[in-house]
Amino acid sequence: MTHTTTLNHVDLEAVAALTEAIRREPEKGATTWRAEVEWRGGFRSEARIRDFAPVPSDEPAGLGGSDSAPNPVEQLLAALGNCLAVGYAANATAAGITLRGLRIDVEGDLDLHTFLGLRPGHAGYEAIRARVEIDADAPVEDLQALHEKVVATSPVGHTLAREIPLEIRLA
Amino acid sequence: MTHTTTLNHVDLEAVAALTEAIRREPEKGATTWRAEVEWRGGFRSEARIRDFAPVPSDEPAGLGGSDSAPNPVEQLLAALGNCLAVGYAANATAAGITLRGLRIDVEGDLDLHTFLGLRPGHAGYEAIRARVEIDADAPVEDLQALHEKVVATSPVGHTLAREIPLEIRLA
């Protein structure tokens, strides 16, 4: 038996153990994630997640902010890129592919008219594009199969590409 | 004329100037935002946005990560909370409402079966909920009107609640 635990520094045994636990007890697959956001004045805010240091958010000066941190729509693109990175690392490791490097450029188009109250409609991204550069010694068809697996299983990717029931309520 | 520029520390004049510029030249409303993600081994990665310090990402140990930072699906919830905070701050200021505090708790339910390859389907959030606490001296109907305006104009909120064309391609 080949030990692939440390390939790409991915703890494949932890992933396998979780997968097996959820296969045995499907209700263990149901997870809930949280973030607590506190407004800091102007367009600045901070998000607290578990015990990690608060992550700051702001808007560029042109949008009325003090430009001290990435803004929320940029954070959304970062979340997608980071999610895809986990997907490629996990699935490459499961397939025995050694990654030398991985870089994901994400961009999205957003028209400000609705956000600024100039017209009703869709205030969000009109389109989001991710361009993935994989540096690995693997046949192109293996990288293509890896890619397809990642696209088929990306939690953030699927959240963006589908309608998600969203409830926003005043306490 | 009342100067409301510093109400809630929001630079309302910058927002008004941008709104007026886009009203005059609608093509100025079209914006593109970017994030560059670099894999750092295991499930760690870093997102670079403009000239800000790279923001780290990781997964909890139970998911095979080294638990050094919030994970991508948590970052997505943070982006929503931060976006709503900008929306409440901007629209409260425009309405002349002084905010003493604002806190937004966001949570989302995600079933891991698809992410772990145990079944095809939807790997993303099944539902996302945000609970908004506003501390302000304003009649409840003004806060309700504020809330409705924010929900109707939230870029991240609309991106999550709608199907967004998403292209993920290998370079």
Architecture of the largest domain in chain A in CATH? 2-Layer Sandwich
Order of helices and strands of chain A: HEEEHEEHHE
Q: Most extensive interface, residues per chain? A: A-B, 120 and 120 residues
Question: CATH top level of the largest domain in chain A?
Answer: Alpha Beta
- The poorly predicted ranges of chain A are none
Number of separate structural domains of chain A? 2
**Multimerization state:** homodimer
Neighbour order of strands in the largest sheet of chain A: 1-2-3
Distance between the termini of chain A: 55 Å
CATH homology-level superfamily of the largest domain in chain A = K homology (KH) domain
Structural class of chain A: alpha+beta
Shape of chain A: globular
- Secondary structure: number of strands of chain A: 6
Cα-atom radius of gyration of chain A: 19 Å
Question: How many helices of chain A does DSSP assign?
Answer: 4
Quote the beta fraction of chain A: 25-35%
Largest sheet of chain A: 3 strands, antiparallel
Describe what is shown at a glance.
The structure is a homodimer of 171-residue chains. Chain A is built from four helices and six strands.
Please describe the topology of this protein:
The structure is a homodimer of 171-residue chains.
Chain A: H1 12-24, E1 30-39, E2 45-48, E3 55-57, H2 72-94, E4 99-111, E5 125-136, H3 140-153, H4 155-161, E6 166-170
Antiparallel strand pairs in A: 1-2, 2-3, 4-5
Helix pairs in contact in A: 2-3
General description of the model:
Two copies of one chain form a homodimer. The first copy, chain A, is an alpha+beta fold. The first copy, chain A, has four helices and six strands. In chain A, the strands form two sheets. A three-stranded antiparallel β-sheet of chain A has the order 1-2-3, with no helix packed on it. Chain A has a two-stranded antiparallel ribbon with strand order 4-5. The longest helix of chain A has 23 residues, at 72-94. Chains A and B meet through helix 1, strand 1, helix 2, strand 4 and strand 5 of A and helix 1, strand 1, helix 2, strand 4 and strand 5 of B.
